[in-house]
Design a protein that fits this description.
The chain has helices at about 20-30, 60-65, 75-85, 100-110, 125-130, 160-170, 195-205, 220-230, 235-245, 270-285, 295-310, 310-330, 350, 360-375, 385, 405-420, and strands spanning about 45, 90-95, 115-120, 135-140, 180, 210-215, 250-255, 265-270, 345-350, 375, 380, 395-400, 430-435, 445. The chain is α/β, with parallel strands linked by helices.
Length: about 450
């Protein structure tokens, strides 16, 4: 099998500060064992998130120089608008400063007490923005998606039968929309099939419910469909993406993922009334509707990134480089969510540390140890992040786009295998302080 090389050359480099184990032990203790509190200069390989951590291309940097910073109706907005509509043909395109702002605006418009919003799996900010309005976020992923070791080509799929029962029990009048997260981040970065999207769309039509896509990683999901779903091998990723969005009534988008930029997002809608309310909120909280909290140069970078992310040589490299990490540690006996997702490798912390009970946060313990051992910053996705709603205890190692080379990933593998060698010595953790919402960002921990 031929080596799949990075489809780019490195033009600018950023130095990494090499740290010692003693320094890292001191740093993590000072942050109360919360990896979000670390100074980035004290991290060797930062796999905390793939959101906003991409390396932009020379084309994007050139576009930034063209940014039109007019307050209203800038040329950059219209280039951004055209780039979005070319892939996501919705009526209303509303820029925001990032994806969670799009979520905040959307659920402020359609959420509220007594409402319930089903999803394959809500991610943390989506769930928080739903519940902040008084609505309830409900996860309805298929059974295969709840078991890390089960192999299924589309483990992110919505449980359509479960959705039907949910609608019957809840009443369609209490469900403002149905959501699908592509790919399913909380469930291991797993894709959703086109067949499943069509089945969800059909059920939505039956009950006259809007379908909203969480589109953060739409290009990766589209490429998985091309690789894994019958009838799509001969279609371009762009054609597949357009087919996905043609089945929806709107989407939220964090451009910090599959638009390959460091800031930005947008909300797309077909409903005129929702769009009018959303723009009114946008003006109050984000900015004028043609910039939405972004500079013109940011809109330019998004427009170019949306074109570049659909290049299939990039997507082949993207999925294969993530898969490489998963294959290597899995072959050495490290339990992971299988198959490997598009943007991250998820270690099954519950299986990795069976001696640490769920109540003592095995994912947090493992994430802290990976940092102490090798300066690798990942993130717990389990009972810390989702409390009682957690279905699995995972540590996500999210790969920033176009940032690290294979030698960096080989180093990550070595660190994981060293921690695996002495995993029986790891201890459980407890929360010593937490905020009322999104506790994983700022909570304090200590060892039990």
């Amino acid at each position: 099998m031929k080596t799949i090389i990075e489809p780019f050359r490195i033009k600018v480099v950023e130095p990494i500060r090499m740290t010692t184990r003693e320094e890292r032990t001191h740093c993590i203790r000072e942050t109360h064992y919360n990896l979000f509190g670390l100074n980035a200069r004290d991290v060797l390989i930062d796999l905390l998130t793939d959101s906003g951590t991409s390396a932009m291309s020379s084309g994007q940097w050139a576009g930034i120089m063209r940014g039109d910073e007019s307050y209203a109706g800038s040329e950059s907005y219209y280039r951004f608008y055209d780039a979005v509509v070319d892939i996501m043909p919705f009526k209303h395109i509303i820029p925001t400063h990032q994806g969670r702002a799009a979520e905040k605006i959307l659920f402020s418009v359609i959420g509220g007490e007594g409402k319930k919003i089903p999803n394959n799996t809500h991610f943390d900010t989506t769930r928080a923005n739903v519940e902040f309005t008084g609505a309830e976020a409900v996860d309805l992923v298929i059974e295969e998606g709840k078991n890390p070791q089960t192999v299924h080509p589309f483990k992110g799929n919505m449980d359509v039968a479960g959705l039907r029962e949910f609608i019957k029990e809840t009443g369609a009048e209490n469900i403002p929309c149905v959501m699908l997260t592509l790919t399913n981040n909380s469930g291991g970065g797993q894709p959703v099939s086109m067949q499943n999207i069509r089945e969800v769309r059909s059920l939505c039509d039956e009950y006259e419910l809007p379908l909203i896509i969480d589109a953060c990683r739409f290009a990766e999901n589209a490429y998985f469909i091309k690789l894994r779903e019958e009838g799509y091998a001969g279609k371009s990723v762009k054609e597949i993406a357009r087919e996905i969005f043609a089945l929806a009534d709107g989407c939220t988008m964090s451009a910090k993922k599959d638009a390959l930029v460091n800031i930005g997002g947008f909300l797309c809608l077909n409903n005129d009334d929702w769009a009018m309310s959303a723009r009114n909120l946008l003006i109050l909280t984000e900015g004028f509707p043609t910039y939405g909290g972004l500079a013109g140069r940011d809109l330019e970078a998004i427009a170019i990134g949306l074109e570049e992310v659909l290049h299939e040589d990039y997507l082949q490299y993207r999925l294969r480089s993530t898969e490489y990490l998963g294959e290597k540690i899995s072959a050495a006996g490290v339990p992971i969510v299988r198959p490997v997702g598009g943007h991250a490798v998820y270690i099954d912390a519950a299986a990795f540390l069976p001696h640490i009970p769920k109540a003592q946060f095995p994912g947090q313990s493992l994430a802290v140890e990976l940092y102490v051992e090798g300066g690798i910053r990942g993130v717990e996705i389990g009972s810390v992040m989702f409390a009682g709603a957690a279905k699995m205890e995972l540590v996500r190692l999210a790969i920033p786009r176009r940032v690290y080379t294979q030698s960096h990933i080989d180093y990550v593998i070595e660190v994981i295998l060293e921690v695996n060698r002495r995993k029986d010595k790891l201890r459980g953790m407890k929360i010593t302080w937490e905020p009322p919402v999104l506790r994983h960002f700022t909570a304090h921990f200590d060892y039990v």
